[in-house]
């Protein structure tokens, strides 16, 4: 069978997480309209009788300004090192030249496919122009166009990828979907709702850790801490009479129940940890290794 690591790179908001979810047919990676939603390298494994493709969604590439962002970029670097093929995702409405500069700076050692995403937002002429722009760039073996949001023709897309993937032995069991824990994904779903509900700075000062996960008869009881940097942020997350945290809990619970396929009781606590984003100790404790 064909076996390969297919790692997805690109600028923030190109649609990397949306694409991975579309390919896996499962919502593994959280998605939002805000940049820097994804903070970890997240593997999604797709196995059939013909192939095993290990996709990696990665954080959007930026210049790190604090330690958390440095960890995020380290996870991108690790993905650069073990890819068999790189998918370079471009929001076709974004500056093509900026993407070109970024891809050149990656100094890729593996074949890359440029994936022009969000074709639903431009006309055919523009799309053709973009295709021409990227074709022939030294790192680019192929250009494909998709809309990760409106639906990807999975078979066609996978066939393009398989051209670059070697024959080998599978790394994972055929029913394994990811290498990360259920607790991780539960925390991510809470984080996603924080991106949805709160504007500007709050999501960037926040992380979520699951502290308890217990099966109780037909129910899973989950506790999670929401970590913020300042008391004022805690106040915003709680809201007047706790109305915001209640709303957050309700929204997150619906998605968590879908993910774990069980009824869930979710308890959220907000904790203040000054400067956690710049503390090696806290970053480690919160799973940013
Ligand atoms: P990432 O930061 O690269 O992981 O991007 P996300 O997957 O989080 O997507 C960023 C935003 O772009 C979200 O609001 C998505 O719904 C949106 N998006 C992703 N793919 C498409 C697409 O094909 N068309 C349109 N119109 N929007 C998209
Ligand atoms: K995003
Ligand atoms: Mg993402």
UniProtKB/TrEMBL annotation:
It is a peripheral membrane protein. GO terms for biological process: ribosomal small subunit assembly. Residues 36-40 are annotated as: G2. Residues 146-148 are annotated as: G5. GO terms for cellular component: cytosol; plasma membrane. Monomer. This is GTPase Era. It comes from Lacibacter sediminis.
